[in-house]
Amino acid sequence: MLNKMDIYKIDSHKLVYHLDRLYDWYKGKDIYPLYIEISPWGGCNQRCIFCALDFLGYKPHFLGIKVLKKFLKDIAGAGVKSIMFAGEGEPLIYKDIAEAITYAKGRGLDVALTTNGVFLNEKFLKEAFSSLSWLRVSFNAPTPRKYSFIHGTKKEDFYRATENIKKAVILKKKKKLSTVLGVQFLLLEENAKDIGKMIKLSKSLGVDYLIIKPYSYHPKSKNYLKVNYKKFLSLGKRISKYEDKKFKIIFRERAILSLVNRRIYKRCLGLSFWAYLSSDGSLYACSSFLGDKRFIYGNIYKESFKKIWRSEKRREIIKTMQDWDTKKCRSACRLEQINNFLWEIKNPPPHKNFI
What is the distance between the alpha carbons of residues 304 and 320, in angstroms, rounded to a whole number? Predict the structure, then answer.
């Protein structure tokens, strides 16, 4: 049973709410994306055992605030609707993150942030928390010992992250902010027995939701964790009883099914609707191929966003992807549900007029 309490459609997609852009794409127009992920900083204070981007080496690249602001201004003007700060490293280490968030919000962009929460301090919360549509903390164990092992860090980070989450909850209630605050838990063999404790901890912290999602192996990653997700398919139904009006559990059943079952789509069709900006300024077609020059549209230090998006190089990459074998791609990728939807539109069933 797919999660009926996923009011944010995290385990699905939201393209149906952008019919104008979807129609232009369907008619073959070269559209601007709806959403862009941004990595402002390449370094990280943790070494999670599941990190998909460990092969990049956690290099301390960072985006200059001036070039980032220009990029944000350009994408807002082009009709991009939302951005998420996350990426190859920990975005809250980026010294200008609060300024970037408030600037983006001021330009009319919906802004989100994914973090491990260790640097989610009072200064940041005061300056930028209210400018976020949502903030999500990666938190993968309910005890300091297990947290230290899975996150590849010291036990103190567990306490810092929990205290910071509490401060965010207090500020949200005090200021009556609309910012949605959630915790994300990556389901592994190493922490599967801790789900009950994780639900209890998340609920006690006062967050709006807990996401439970599967691990997806990146083809270039140095780590490889084996998880039998078939045995977890009924988990969502069993844990839904712990939800209430103020606390939701979003069990990523569709993401798990995409790992267990064969891929529906044969070509990646979703690249027109999104992009990824890396910490060195490269604009990528797909985050599954970071570091691969074949998937770089251009670099914002050299060209404007609009020039990159309308470039011949981008057209060549999109054309190449029309024949790309998705078996080479990462399973349960960021565009999985979007691609399923677009593939169905482009490949209708027999007797489609019998609605």
Answer: 23
